[in-house]
Design a protein that fits this description.
Blueprint lengths: L1 H10 L2 H4 L12 E5 L5 E5 H7 L7 H15 L7 H12 L4 H18 L1 H8 L9 H16 L7
Helix pairs in contact: 1-5, 4-5, 4-6, 4-8, 5-6
């Protein structure tokens, strides 16, 4: 974890300013965003994952939810997946980054086989191959951002 923080600091100083990079655990998987009007929009990530067929029995569900939270707060995680995102998720869940990646892939495979149509509806276009974990996180983040700012999407 210390190595990742140092690496992130060298790559981009915003990466270590994230409140999620402290020793605190993420207790709530609820993402809150503020719209331009100042209203709060609260979206439950677990509800979206459940709608996509990823139930509670998959550890990857928790890892994906944490990954979504982190990347929504700091987009630099999209560029440093194996060096920052997986290790930071692993630290919060007391495991290693390889388990995080494997369990995310398993959860995404479940979504891909059970609810392929819902995933395509979430994206808004057909998907030919199963998304990688960071691509799946990106899909969820984009969906949440569209929900938070619906007027920006009508252009």
């Amino acid at each position: 974890f210390k190595v990742c923080s140092r690496f992130c600091m060298l790559v981009d100083s915003r990466c270590i300013l994230s409140p999620f990079l402290g020793n605190q655990r993420i207790s709530s998987m609820i993402v809150t965003q503020i719209t331009k009007k100042g209203a709060f929009i609260v979206t439950n990530i677990y509800e979206i994952l459940s709608d996509l067929g990823i139930s509670r029995k998959y550890r990857g569900r928790n890892y994906l939810a944490t990954g979504v939270q982190l990347t929504m707060h700091d987009a630099n995680y999209f560029f440093h997946v194996t060096k920052c995102l997986y290790p930071d998720v692993a630290t919060r869940h007391s495991t290693n980054w390889k388990c995080v990646e494997r369990d995310m892939r398993t959860a995404i495979e479940v979504c891909w086989t059970k609810r392929h149509a819902q995933l395509e509806a979430l994206v808004g276009h057909p998907i030919d191959e199963r998304p990688a974990p960071i691509d799946f996180i990106d899909i969820i983040v984009n969906y949440l951002q569209k929900e938070a700012h619906p007027q920006a999407n009508k252009r």
